[in-house]
Amino acid sequence: RVKGEGRNGYSVYDDGLMEVADARQRLDSELRHAIANGEFELHYQAIVDAHTRRVCGAEALVRWRHPRRGLVPPLEFIPFAEESDLIDQIGQWVLRRACIEAAAWPDDTVVAVNLSPAQFRRANPVAMIRQALADSGLPARRLEIEITENVFLTGAEDNIAIVRQMKELGVSISLDDFGTGYSSLSYLTTFPFDTVKIDRSFTMNMTKRADCAAVIASVITLTRCLGVATIAEGVENHAQLELLRGAGVDFCQGYLFGRPAPAADLDFSRPAVMKQAGAAA
Ligand code: C2E
Ligand code: MG
Ligand code: MG
Ligand code: MG
């Protein structure tokens, strides 16, 4: 665009901007409708013991059953919801639903639920967790809350206190997407995490890049010294699994053991079956 049309060199009536504003408006009202109509569902992805292949638990991942678009993945609406108050209601629904479903699983399994920094902003999530546990009857030790280091970037002191209160409830806390942020190593000593989840970007490259394999090996060594368990995310093939096992990883999650699917598809009764590379979902 040429300069001088508006204050910033573009007109406020720019068609592109109007389209973006329209799309956001539509997504906002559709999401409000989805909350009122119960259009969300949870899929679960198995978390597997790297050495015995026992299915120790599963991560709850939200999907939106859109009347026209079909099953919408979280990255197409969660970031938007995080910018408004919508994440509060969606997040509350996710937590409650996950606790209710997991209450029917074997007693030695865990359900992991994602909590984004935005969910720390308005309401204190501790009360929400306490309520979900009470309503579902799920023992606190069977719930794991996944947070990212971004929780500690925004409102650091307050949020550390809130996460401590969560731990006091008896739930465990995992550090999600480890390695993707800024000064990751320092967060390991900021807070007593129960688990660190090594991000998929490292797992993905570890068989091709020595530096990624080295990062994974040293993270596992370090967390082990701190008494923190590790989960490798995005494990897709046997070569990755073998390297991870050699490095001493505790748990794995990824397409090799299963894609996220409805709770009914989880099978806790036998070791996870490994899918052939390239096999259909
Ligand atoms: P995340 O918590 O890191 O979840 C893992 C994502 O990686 C999931 O994508 C999962 O389907 C995908 N994944 C797992 N294994 C593999 C693999 O082997 N290969 C590949 N290529 N991908 C794999 P999904 O379900 O699309 O979720 C994306 C992100 O959305 C999540 O990342 C999480 O940050 C967010 N999210 C999902 N559900 C919720 C929720 O209920 N609340 C909040 N606040 N965020 C959520
Ligand atoms: Mg997660
Ligand atoms: Mg993750
Ligand atoms: Mg990730």
In short:
This protein has 281 residues and is α/β, with parallel strands linked by helices.
Overview of the molecule:
This is EAL domain-containing protein. The protein has helices at residues 15-37, 78-82, 86-102, 125-136, 150-153, 156-169, 184-190, 200-205, 210-226, 238-247; strands at 40-49, 55-66, 70-72, 110-114, 143-147, 172-178, 195-198, 229-232, 251-252. It is α/β, with parallel strands linked by helices and 281 residues long. A hairpin with a 5-residue loop joins strand 1 (40-49) and strand 2. The longest helix is centred in the N-terminal third of the chain and has 23 residues, at 15-37. It is globular and about 55 Å long. Mean pLDDT is 91; it is low at 1-6. The protein binds ligand C2E and magnesium ion (3 copies).
Layout of secondary structure:
Elements: H1 15-37, E1 40-49, E2 55-66, E3 70-72, H2 78-82, H3 86-102, E4 110-114, H4 125-136, E5 143-147, H5 150-153, H6 156-169, E6 172-178, H7 184-190, E7 195-198, H8 200-205, H9 210-226, E8 229-232, H10 238-247, E9 251-252
Parallel strand pairs: 2-4, 4-5, 5-6, 6-7, 7-8, 8-9
Antiparallel strand pairs: 1-2, 1-9, 2-3
The structure holds ligand C2E and magnesium ion (MG) (3 copies).
